[in-house]
Amino acid sequence: MSREIDLGNRVPFFPTNKSSQNVKPDRTNDIALKRNGRERMSQLRDSTAGDAKVEISDSIKDFSRIKKAVDAAPDIDNSEKIANLRSKIQRGEYTIDYDALADRMLSTEL
To answer: pLDDT tens digit string along 7-30?
Structure first.
């Protein structure tokens, strides 16, 4: 029992098929793509003039300025400092100042 499916003018699934090369594009959507006339453009501009305004808060503006300043700042090369600390740790000469560490931890929490 076999059923035949009528595909009509449907484009085949694989566009590289030889049969798909003979299919003409559908031009019904071209009508919707036409430009609006001057009168309609003016009407749209007037009706959306109040909707198109956006206010950016001062805090966002400040953040933007800070981010630009940080991005413009030169990169800091800590490789020498890291190498120095690494060698102190490996030699067993690195000591931790626990009071300073505790103060810093508390200052970041407050």
So the answer is: 566 655 655 555 545 555 555 555
Owning domain of residue 90: 79-110
Residue 90, Cβ neighbours under 10 Å: how many? 9
How many domains is the chain partitioned into structurally?
Answer: 1
Q: Could you tell me if residue 8 is inside a domain?
A: no
User: Which residue is associated with the tokens 């407050």?
Assistant: 110
**What value does the mean pLDDT take over residues 73-86?**
92
Average the pLDDT over each of 24-33, 36-45, 54-63, 79-88 and give the range with the smallest value. Answer: 24-33
Expressed in angstroms, the distance from the first to the final Cα of the chain is 79
Asked whether residue 7 is assigned to any structural domain, the reply reads no
Non-local (6+) Cβ contacts of 20 within 8 A are 11, 12, 14
